[in-house]
Specification:
About 35% of the residues lie in helices and about 25% in strands. With about 280 residues, the chain is an alpha/beta fold. It has a single domain, classed as Protocatechuate 4,5-dioxygenase, Chain B. An 8-stranded mixed sheet has the order 6-3-7-2-8-1-10-9, sandwiched between helices. The longest helix is centred in the N-terminal third of the chain and has 16 residues. Pfam families: LigB (PF02900). One of its GO terms (molecular function) is 3,4-dihydroxyphenylacetate 2,3-dioxygenase activity. This is 3,4-dihydroxyphenylacetate 2,3-dioxygenase. Keywords: Dioxygenase, Oxidoreductase.
Length: about 280
């Protein structure tokens, strides 16, 4: 029987890639990189052999979608930030059977979900950036669209449930990653340089709410957080509508989850947004 052995909410900011390159930004995101490497270390220690990524850079406008290719290989340049992410080489295994099973379970719950094996369906950088640093090696990857424009938090919660059910019926030991920011109000273009935008948050209100959310997670007050999730996503411009986060907690049992989040490294602002790596242990 399969199981989710570790879960985390993670950052995927492009400056993590610039942080490892010579130049003025070298080293600027080292603590975030170290946090992701520690997540993978703990996942391997817990027996993980598969990674599922809930990717808020994969936008979908109808239904839910899973990239279940058997192999992902290519070179990625970001359309959003071509000056940040260029020619990022990748080569990972996939797990079509698990992707198909998740889609079937979700659809049974009334959440229409399609699993795709299409060679030209590429991964987005919400998956590629963390995988670059976590180095999954032979671990297969399943990527699920998390930028859901016309979807409800409730249906994303059910998709999270479907993930857990499908994993339990498999033989996979899963590291589950919700890849997306906390608040996500990127600096207005005309204000970016004047406000040192790469290293600052665009709204103090968002920073304060982010810090409160982290406090709730670390205190194990998940039920309280879930009650505020829809408004948090709306008022603080949660990345992808924070559907990755709804899926994550749906997979963990929603308000029945009794674990406490562990912040790895520091909360940090990036291009106006709020970022963190937070582990959610599995009892």
């Amino acid at each position: 029987m399969g199981e989710i052995v570790l879960a985390a909410k993670i950052t995927h900011v492009p400056t993590m890639l610039l942080s490892e390159q010579p130049g003025k930004l070298q080293g600027c995101r080292q603590q975030a990189i170290d946090g992701q490497r520690e997540i993978m270390r703990r996942a391997r220690e817990a027996g993980a052999d598969t990674v599922i990524v809930l990717d808020t850079h994969w936008l979908v406008n109808a239904g839910y979608h899973i990239n279940s290719n058997s192999r992902f290989k290519g070179s990625f340049t970001s359309h959003e930030f071509p000056h940040f992410i260029q020619n990022l080489e990748y080569d990972y295994r996939g797990n079509p059977e698990l992707g198909d099973a998740i889609a079937a379970k979700a659809t049974e719950k009334g959440v229409f979900t399609l699993s795709h094996q299409v060679d030209t369906l590429d991964l987005e950088y919400g998956t590629l950036v963390p995988m670059h640093f976590m180095e999954p090696g032979d671990m297969p990857i399943v990527s699920i669209a998390g930028w859901c424009t016309v979807h409800s938090i409730e249906s994303s919660r059910k998709l999270g449930e479907a993930i857990t059910e499908a994993v339990k019926e498999s033989d996979a030991k899963v590291l589950l990653l919700a890849s997306g920011s906390l608040s996500h109000k990127i600096w207005e273009n005309d204000l970016y340089e004047a406000n040192n935008g790469t290293f600052t948050i665009s709204r103090e209100f968002n920073r304060q709410v982010d810090l409160r959310v982290l406090e709730l997670w670390q205190n194990g007050e998940i039920d309280t957080f879930l009650k505020m999730l829809p408004e948090y996503a709306e008022y603080c411009c949660g990345e992808g509508g924070m559907h990755d986060t709804a899926m994550l907690f749906g997979a963990l049992g929603w308000d029945k989850y009794t674990g406490k989040g562990e912040l790895l490294g520091e909360y940090f602002p990036s291009s106006g947004t709020g970022q963190a790596n937070v582990i959610f242990p599995i009892d």
